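User: Structure tokens for this complex, please. No commentary.
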Amino acid sequence: MRTRQISVSKAIVEALTEEMQRDESIFIIGEDLVSHGGIFNQFKGLPALFKDRIIDTPISETSIVGCGVGAALTGMRPIVDMHFADFVTTAMDEIVNQMAKIRYMFGGQAKVPMVLWAPDGGGISAAAQHSQSLESWFVHTPGLKVVVPSDPADVKGLLKAAIRDDDPVMFFQHKKLFGKRGAVPEEEYVIPLGKAAVKRKGKDITIITYSRMTSVCLEAGRRLADIGIEAEVIDLRTLKPLDFPAIAESVQKTCCAMVVHEACLTGGFGGEIAACIGEELFDYLAAPVMRIGAKDVPMPFSPVMENFVLPQVEDVCACAEKIMKRKRK
Amino acid sequence: MRTRQISVSKAIVEALTEEMQRDESIFIIGEDLVSHGGIFNQFKGLPALFKDRIIDTPISETSIVGCGVGAALTGMRPIVDMHFADFVTTAMDEIVNQMAKIRYMFGGQAKVPMVLWAPDGGGISAAAQHSQSLESWFVHTPGLKVVVPSDPADVKGLLKAAIRDDDPVMFFQHKKLFGKRGAVPEEEYVIPLGKAAVKRKGKDITIITYSRMTSVCLEAGRRLADIGIEAEVIDLRTLKPLDFPAIAESVQKTCCAMVVHEACLTGGFGGEIAACIGEELFDYLAAPVMRIGAKDVPMPFSPVMENFVLPQVEDVCACAEKIMKRKRK
Amino acid sequence: MHSSADSNAPIISISASRKKAILKKMIQIRQFEERAGELFHQKLIPGFIHLSIGQEASTVGSCASLRPDDYIISTHRGHAHILAKGADPKYMFAELLGKKTGYCKGKGGSMHIADFSLGILGANGVVGGGFPIMVGAGMSIKLRKTDQVGMVFFGDGASNRGTFHEAANMAAVFKLPIIFVCENNNYASTSHAKVMVAGGSIAARAKAYDMPGYTVDGSNVLDVLEVVQRAVDLARSGGGPSIVETATYRYRGHFEGDRQEYRTIQEINAHRMHRDPIARFEKLLVAYNTINLDYIVKIWHETAEDIEKAIHFGMESPLPAPEDALKGLFVNS
Amino acid sequence: MHSSADSNAPIISISASRKKAILKKMIQIRQFEERAGELFHQKLIPGFIHLSIGQEASTVGSCASLRPDDYIISTHRGHAHILAKGADPKYMFAELLGKKTGYCKGKGGSMHIADFSLGILGANGVVGGGFPIMVGAGMSIKLRKTDQVGMVFFGDGASNRGTFHEAANMAAVFKLPIIFVCENNNYASTSHAKVMVAGGSIAARAKAYDMPGYTVDGSNVLDVLEVVQRAVDLARSGGGPSIVETATYRYRGHFEGDRQEYRTIQEINAHRMHRDPIARFEKLLVAYNTINLDYIVKIWHETAEDIEKAIHFGMESPLPAPEDALKGLFVNS
Ligand SMILES: Cc1ncc(C[n+]2csc(CCOP(=O)(O)OP(=O)(O)O)c2C)c(N)n1
Ligand SMILES: Cc1ncc(C[n+]2csc(CCOP(=O)(O)OP(=O)(O)O)c2C)c(N)n1
Ligand SMILES: [Mg+2]
Ligand SMILES: [Mg+2]
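Assistant:
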């Protein structure tokens, strides 16, 4: 398979271009898409290619999301740009009570093929209202699929799958990853939703993660290898559907696990995974399943504090070592 | 301590009356409070007692919650009635990005002493948009306290504590509990936030629960006793702050645990508790920590399906028996 | 732009058969609602229901201007809208009764009935929840370049939700083919529109978005049709959205069981006696010799029979299996 | 009600010393913003910042009508509002620089500055997030029976959020002492207000809520003051809310670093040259002999010195400790 090194931003544009060329019912709607190509330049070049299908709106997020729902119900395949993931808060009724529930509560009469595309995460000194990782709310909302990619190849393949999916998909794109480069296949491909990827092989401990924390965990994996710990790093890629078999396979081998995410610890998706492992793999576990997440505060502005709040490579290493000590006992 | 048997509704009215008499800065704002005494008659009699301090609003939930925030910041102690907990979705920015974060992000300059009072839960054939249990979103939102009471005495004592608290409190009142009666002390009392209650003593298995599921678990406890299983039922009462020491004390004794809530299973608060138990009490556990929650679908309307989706006494018993079998192995 | 139909104008020039169909639809709705109320009080319908009795002219007059392929979005008080757009009462009763044969297989109930094959994009339990969705249907029409229109029903209370403002502005900005029909029945649950809607007029708010706003007597079905038709024609011809506010009244409580401490029986009776939309229309049609009294009796009778058949269908239908609850969440499930 | 101040009217009759204070405040804001921009481009300020250069008359004219105990709520473009209400630039710079001595101890940054002791209830990173909170401040004033007022600043873009509508209606319904000041600088990030605000006028929307709406030349500080003072007087005397829309313009990009492909340099320069609020006011004051050129030079100089001192304070201040991040979430933490 021939690949090239491209950035996440480029991968997004490629995925969108290919899909929009393939299917005329796809359109993108949100704020500042046309002149800016999106607030993170993530849609750069698309407005020129798909003139009427990239739509700038007033600042009316509630209606923008609702607009996606209504268009999806009547034959279109909208991609709704949320500007910042934090602004899902202004459209939760539309996401949770309409987009997620319409198909079910109307007895399966309708489908809602739409993608809600939301740049999330911290690390850019954007403070409390522009830095959140809110995926666990949506995992807890039946009717939604949740995608949390970590590198250019996954972004491209998963975005294409999300667009083709007939159900509503929350696509959380970490905003620190736009510039991240990686190998992306030249030919067309789609990555099915619900398939995790083992991004590092290892026999000692399973590290389960997703989104930006994948690179943090991979770096931790390298450092742990230096001290003789071979960590297996699983990038979940989608949280719903969840690839629990991939987790189980690894934990049955390593007999211990930890979960790492950027969302704040308490009530985060790590609890769900740790609970599932505890329930399903109890007899395999040689040590407690540990979790790492951001500290339980709103994101502070000043970088010294923000770095302290966000999980770091050192935190992952320290936790893995602690687990390994327990395991070896 | 002298008590009387009163309903949850009566307990609410008593708590509010006592607190509003004590503190003039308390007011209640929401829809249909004055003529109806609240949509569930939960504020019955109050409008006559506190004329200008029970305020009917237009249907503008976003502004109603924001109104609470602004009033709390400027010297008042608002109680905001959400009508149905499902409608928090129309005010998530106000709850999550403002109410929860204002104190922190402004460096501690302000306090936000307000109660967001929200009747939640299913079981009344109110279908997908009027039956949700959304507490886990707010447990995952740093800056909020979360109260989930289960009987009249707790409702009264916790509501008083929530009103006196200087931080924002989400108070989820299960709507099937309004008519529930129980012994309530005659003299004044307050139940501090963050204290769980052991509602049934037992040595065999710890059942951790809250809100309406407490009575379901207590009934399960009685039935389990008939077959020789002594379950300890812990009613968490508040999820944030969480009384983990109470959980630990019980699990150290019983060596096994299960969590029961009405919110849908995946991503629910049960995962958090199971994960914490796994992390902190690994060496005590003789069986996996299991979770019971509603099935992962929106609430269906028809009672046969709704009952199937909601956790029942039988489900709790079956799960407890399964755990006990594992434990005895 | 803020005008009202001239009620001294001659009877709107539509065919006698259309007029008869309109009358029949109003009667069907009235009977559907009365029987639904009875079934509810007999505890055969679970949950809660909101009835539209008294508001028939507003709803039927509005929907009479629509084509089968046009869209509507309804509210918590939705039975009338859905019937007016052509839904079959038997699947509706089955749904209200929580049966497997209902429009939503028993998953929706009173507040969540839809028939996508008839352009009924659903009732909505969230007040004001329909506005943004209708923006999407309008955008879809625009992108697909059809000449459909969308009509979103809402109450006086709903007009105070932020979604109204966002949707009205977006509809105007994109010139979407949307008709905002506010059925102002004076009350949002217990609160009076005069108190809760600053300025008192929802139609007048159209001006803020530079679109036409109309107020019309919602107890006169032909007035409603005439005004709404104007808005529909504008939308269909690419002229963008309008707001129509119908002055109407509900005879029943906000929901069945409502104690209604916020109004007097006298007030309700005055409406019933002097402004009943069905009685008014019947009188008009008789006066113009379009129909006679026998015909009226016949329609009430026929419609009642149909309603009973529909109830029978619902009552006899099977309940869903408990496990049906797990089906239909995703497209492949 | 939708009127504009007559700009041929004689110079508003306030004292010379107040006029001087107003000029000085505008200059302080200009200099604060220019230096903030520089510090940002020197990568000393983390995150992103939105500057108000060009909008000084709108902001200072509005705040000049307020008492110290009145409330304001600001926006993402908040430095000017906060300075105009009396905040100390040194704690502001310290905050922008992420220092422990900042207004928010380094937790807030540019979009989240507040000084509750001055009635500044905070900037807000969520566009339109301030409206509902101001409803609460207004309600609190009403319940506490004081004669304070609250002023909520917002942009043309923010006027399209549902929160605007809900808050305007609620303010009118409860006759709350709130002044809605829309600083219409033509753009919401990249989008032009003419395209995104249906009808084009935000002040005109006041009519929908039965409250006064004014449009005023936002580059003329005395015009702004005169009109806003009218709205403040009404609010303070129990007459309820008003909307004031100032026609203004920002010289810098939406945020520092904005490529600004949505407008031309010519457009910006035309505003700078012909409608600069500070130059206009200086010319006026000189023409009326309130001040002379030397005085102007002196103010610019003095203010610049103060700003440098404030920057110095910020630069020399210590960073927070990492663990400070864990403090201050709850009242007892
Ligand atoms: C967002 C939201 N808020 C509150 C409610 C509760 N509620 C249901 S109907 C209703 C009144 C609606 O009044 P109106 O819009 O005038 O419609 P009507 O009932 O008169 O038909 C209220 C407050 C709701 N369902 N959704
Ligand atoms: C709810 C929300 N949507 C979008 C944004 C991103 N955003 C920040 S400023 C801005 C433009 C605001 O325009 P306007 O209200 O006119 O204020 P101005 O920037 O012109 O001062 C946008 C879209 C946001 N912060 N909040
Ligand atoms: Mg109404
Ligand atoms: Mg602007």
